[in-house]
Amino acid sequence: MRTYYPAPKPRELVPFLLALPKTDVIPVRRQTTKLKKELEAIVQLKPNTWGSRITRNQSVMLFLSGLRTYSRKEALTNNFTGWWPELTNDTHFWQVLEHTRPDWVFDWLQRWSTSNQWYKPSYRLLRQLEDRQIIPYDARLFSTSVPGLIGDMCKPLCETEPVPAQAEKVLAQQLSTDPVLLTRDLPLVFDFDSSIDSHSGSVQLTMDKKKWNWKEPLTWQTWSEKHPRQLITWLDIIRELVQSGHLDRADLLTRSLLALRRDFRRPLLTWFKNLFEALQPTVSERLSRQNELVELLAHPLPLVVNFALDQLKSLWTEPDFDAAPLLLYAEGLMPRQDLKTTLRTLLGAFEKLVKRQPTLAPTIARLACLALTNADAGVQERAAKLLAGLLGAKKPVLDAAEAEETTATIGLYTDLLSAAARTTLSSFLVAAPDSAPTAATYLPLPEFVPELSAATAITPVADWHELLFLTGQVVQHNEPAATERWLDGLLRLRGQYPADYAQQLRPYLLQALPWNLKGKTEEETATLLREVSFSTGRNGRRELLSALLISWYQGFTEARVRRVGLHDQQYSNPDPLLRVEQQRLASVEEQLRAGAATLPLLSTPSHAPHWVAPSVLVEKLLAYEAADRTPDAADLALALARTAFRNEQDAAPARALLPQVRHAELRALLSWFLAPAVVVQPMPPLPPVSGEAVSVVKAVVKKFGQLNPFRQASSDLPPTPLAEALPWLWAVAGRTRHPAAELPELLPLTSCPGVAAPWQPQWEFVQKSNTYKQTWNKDQPEVTVVWQELNVITKHPDKRPPSPLLLYSQHAGLRLTNQYYLWSIVPDVAFLLTLMPNNPAPLHWHLLRTACAYRTNNQGGEGRGVVEAFLHSLLGAGSAFDESTTVLLAMGLVHNAPMCRALALEVLLSAIATARLQLAALGEALGKTLAVEFAPLQRLTDLLAQTRAIDPLTDDAVRQLLDVLLPALPAVPLRNTRKLIETYADLRGRTGQPVPPAVQSRLREWSTSATLKKAAASLVSA
């Protein structure tokens, strides 16, 4: 007969731990850590269900054993997660803790508090630990735990019936009995960055089915109607404590203002602002704190500045108000672009101050002149009215010298003034001497020729020390240009590695794999590196380079790059172009493993930013033939995509070298590819290939390989022999040389987009909505949210190209059904944008539908990173923007992230200077975007205001842009349309160009609006 023993409980373990001698602590510690690892191991519990089999009692006993036996090293590891809050009232927990009194408890609590944003130690636990003298008092630690107290106090109220009708009063009364909390710890939330802004408590009777009347249906809605929920915040509690006299009102007002000066999170600053307003300070209370309020005007966040001025605006006329500090801080506010409404309010206050104290007029005139430099037309107009009032006052407030100085200062800003401000100050502007106005007409660049000169040439790596330095740059920053030089240096300096190069590489290896190698010996490092394969996980180019670095560290004893898994997984969708890069890096690794003389990659850029000179390409091919080596197909495909074939000065000597190329097929390919632009020659006929059948066979082989449990992790892209790759290389060359042309000669290869025909998808906005119910809100029980989504219409979804070498077809057939691809691509976008400089349209279309096809004003953090990388790639000279690039730029100009809009403005100005911008296409894209209110019009008007009076070329370009944009906007004017009309009127006055009929027609429709009638009247001809 089998005997079953009950599972042990924590109380049975405590006597053993208390009696444990010092000599047995280390052996018990070892067994505890071993048992913990075994019990917490993730195993399959049920089919498709994974987890650990550890029970709660076992977990508690392991925790108690850790308290008794762990040293500081074991305790401070991430594996020691405690039951601290749940065991606060447990006798056994305190017995073990009092007996052991570990010296690491305080450090562990500090680490817990700083490493977890949402889960902090319990305040009551800290108080008990302090009372028992187990930890010392620490202000920061206690301040972060105070906010969670409200949730702990609400739990008992939810279990008592009846629940108090005014639970916040009950909680305030309970807190009022703790003077230590009120006088020492609660004030700390004003000094440290705590989460008091987000902590709240919910008081509602717990749903107990035993007490429920089963004659009625048991639903959460019916329970909530019978027992309504009370949501309690710290603002409610503090108001109650102030009313009861347990908290000093004056002290809280002062502390709130001081807290607003600190570098806290925006939500926390909002909470302090709300606390100050909730206390409803009187005029006298605000006057006594006017210095603290004025000092808030120096804060970088508009939230704080707006709050300060809102509290000060009723004090301008008070006798006790001191205007001198306000005028001192106001000087820093005038040029700020994020305080438009606030600056207009402040300029209005200056009028009241001048009436009260005329001696302030010179200072206020100087500040008003400074406000004329603000890009906002409304701020300029308000400043102009103030200056006109000061200069034209019936009773002069400025003497002759001051008035002359003010008038001269206004004249300096004449070119920056908006139309309304110039009209207001027209009588004070000095007429410029007669001179012919500088006229400029913007025209887009017809054809771009990359600069291949000594100024743009990329210097090869000089020696080992520079190569080692570049290794650190590659590991830390993953910058594409540095990585290309590093790859070239690896091959060029193959015979110059020092004997101890592996030891010198070890610090960089630790940076690449910190979680694996930190604190490991050389033997342990060697063992771990043998197990690292990157076969699964969210892999990208960083993992490919890490695999190459590991292979280098180990002396290239085994191939690692091909073992990096770049296949689609549940939470990872690597970009298909990474498979081509994997093949290229694998070819580097194979050369270095062979030990013979190495040859440089064909695709390594020879000139900045990422161009391959035609002559350099041909010379490298001749070097390969001289060494009797066959070029790698992936490397050659990328080299063709990067070749600056339009530079005739370099292409001519390259063509002169082509007769020396022995490979007839490559010679024919390069002769066609590098032919002069004036020579129109058809592509020679290509033999038909069974690419579709080959891809099906590969798919079947791959599927059977995945079913093999003993298979080795391998590359998704097997190396393609050059003879088999030639048709695909012709396709890459054809689409590189003729990005938008039809190439019927390539039809025998495949019907995939991006080969015989360019991939040019359509894009549109689709309105979507979602309706959800909120039963707790009787005023609004049902809410409908409406938004616009960008939809890029793609033909042939899920039709993959027959070869990975078809660079311009890889993205056309992708069907993106989740956001995991976007998460995977963010670190690699900067690199991907360097691969196809002659024809980036397929990648740009793909980035558009990936990073911008989300809700209005909410592209997400990953989408923002993709857009930023895209915009960075456009800064500088290049070919004229096509439709895909233009639409992506339009998305950047109205993006919800200020950083993206600032970058897009830089791109706009740079593209005008380099003649890359297609203004008609950009105007149509912006009109299509703003007409459906995908983004607010104010974002664009604020950006265009910053382009005023830079130079005549920029004025004309923006004028042409608005000529197309204004008619594309809806007949029912959008908000802030008046600002756009004023900008257009200002540009028309600068450029002297007439208003097109389409713009006049739209302006006549807008003239029926009372707010736009005045702005549009001057532009509409009779």
Task: Reconstruct the topology from this structure.
Blueprint: H1 10-18, H2 25-39, E1 43-46, E2 49-51, H3 56-69, H4 72-75, H5 91-100, H6 105-115, H7 123-131, H8 139-145, H9 149-158, H10 167-175, H11 179-185, E3 200-203, H12 220-226, E4 230-233, H13 234-243, H14 249-259, H15 266-278, H16 283-287, H17 290-295, H18 302-312, H19 323-330, H20 340-356, H21 361-371, H22 377-391, H23 400-412, H24 419-424, H25 464-477, H26 480-492, H27 501-512, H28 514-517, H29 522-531, H30 541-553, H31 577-594, H32 614-626, H33 633-642, H34 648-657, H35 664-673, H36 691-707, H37 722-737, E5 762-773, E6 782-793, H38 820-825, H39 829-832, H40 841-851, H41 860-873, H42 883-893, H43 898-913, H44 919-931, H45 937-945, H46 952-968, H47 977-991, H48 997-1006, H49 1013-1017
Antiparallel strand pairs: 1-2, 3-4, 5-6
Helix pairs in contact: 1-3, 1-5, 2-3, 10-13, 14-15, 20-21, 20-22, 21-22, 21-23, 25-26, 25-27, 27-30, 30-31, 31-33, 32-34, 33-37, 35-37, 40-41, 40-42, 41-43, 42-43, 42-44, 44-46, 45-47, 46-47, 46-48
Describe the 3D structure.
This protein has 1022 residues and is mainly alpha-helical. The protein contains 49 helices and six strands. The strands form three sheets. Strands 1-2 form a two-stranded antiparallel ribbon. Strands 3-4 form a two-stranded antiparallel ribbon. α30 runs parallel beside α31, α40 (841-851) runs antiparallel to α41 (860-873) and α40 (841-851) runs parallel beside α42. The radius of gyration is 36 Å and the shape is globular.
